[in-house]
Design a protein that fits this description.
3 helices; single chain; about 100 residues
Length: about 100
């Protein structure tokens, strides 16, 4: 019986495997992009107030100052709503 020359067949199999992985990766990427949702907003018992003095775009130093003040006011509201005892008990429950 005559033996066939199969010296390059492993390269073809490797190339086929690379193509299959690439197609699966591309399909997964497309599915991920199609199912992408908007960012989750923070859930709070009381909504944070948004000052009307915040400009839509920052063009001048005054706009930057107004935005910084609005952020400082908002962070004060967030910090005051934290409860250390509740946080500690939640962390102890996790451990």
């Amino acid at each position: 019986m005559k033996r066939l020359n199969q010296s390059g067949s492993h390269i073809v199999a490797l190339a086929l495997a690379v193509v299959v992985v690439a197609v699966l990766g591309f399909a997964g990427y497309r599915v991920m992009q199609a199912n992408k949702t908007t960012p989750v907003t923070t859930a709070s018992t009381q909504p944070l107030s948004t000052p009307s003095a915040v400009p839509a775009t920052i063009k001048t130093n005054g706009d930057l100052t107004a935005t910084a003040k609005a952020l400082d006011d908002t962070s004060a509201q967030v910090d005051s709503s934290l409860n250390d005892n509740s946080l500690n008990s939640d962390l102890n429950d996790l451990l």
